């Protein structure tokens, strides 16, 4: 408790300006994102689509795809069809002919192998087997003699030398080397233990471990104080933001709203009723008068043009009635009568 309370007070004093600055930056960033970055991003996205994507899409749809289709058809006509014809009319008959020749040659070679090469090969193999048996018998005798000589001249003296000279000397040297290594190892072990291990162990037990525990406690308290101070500073920052928002509303928003409601709205209504609506009615009347004048002038011009054409060309000839060859007597078929046998009038 003696460490926690001072640490939290100091950390709160240090963290509060940072948290208030952070909250102000967050508010400014959100305002900037909503009012500037999103519209600019949408405009850039639309501009990028219009300048980068749409031309390539248009090029792909209206140029590359038709050109590729035309090239595919042209390649099929110029390459695939001739290659198919060449394969069917030239390569396939040539391959069949070569296959027949190869089958005939294979049959000839099989007959030659079965009638000539196989009997000759069997005779040669039998001759070689006889020669091999003779050579194996001679080699076995020579190997037996060489083995007996090597056993009595090399192996037996080597066994005696190993058993009575080399083995005792090796055991003595091994015991001497083991004793020397054991003594040197013991000396080095105790020297390293006294000079290195014991001081390091004492430093770890009596210095580093207590210091680490103290630092761990301090670090834990500082971390908890930072978290607590960040939360408290957030509450203080929100309260300060609410106070500033309330002051802004009282100082700017409410007076502006009052001015809009009590001054601008009645003035606007008066201007609308006394100026704008009469001006609109006068403008509509002027428009109707102008349209009527234009319609009268258009009719007068049309009549003058008809009179001038009649003066130059004359009266147009009346159209003759055209015989449409339709029956006009009593016996015509109408919706109220019928010509069937059952419902005939």
UniProtKB/TrEMBL annotation:
This is Integral membrane protein. Keywords: Membrane, Transmembrane, Transmembrane helix. Residues 315-345 are annotated as: Disordered. Residues 329-345 have a biased composition (Low complexity). Residues 315-328 have a biased composition (Basic and acidic residues). It comes from Streptomyces collinus (strain DSM 40733 / Tue 365). The chain crosses the membrane at residues 6-28, 40-57, 63-85, 97-114, 134-155, 176-204.
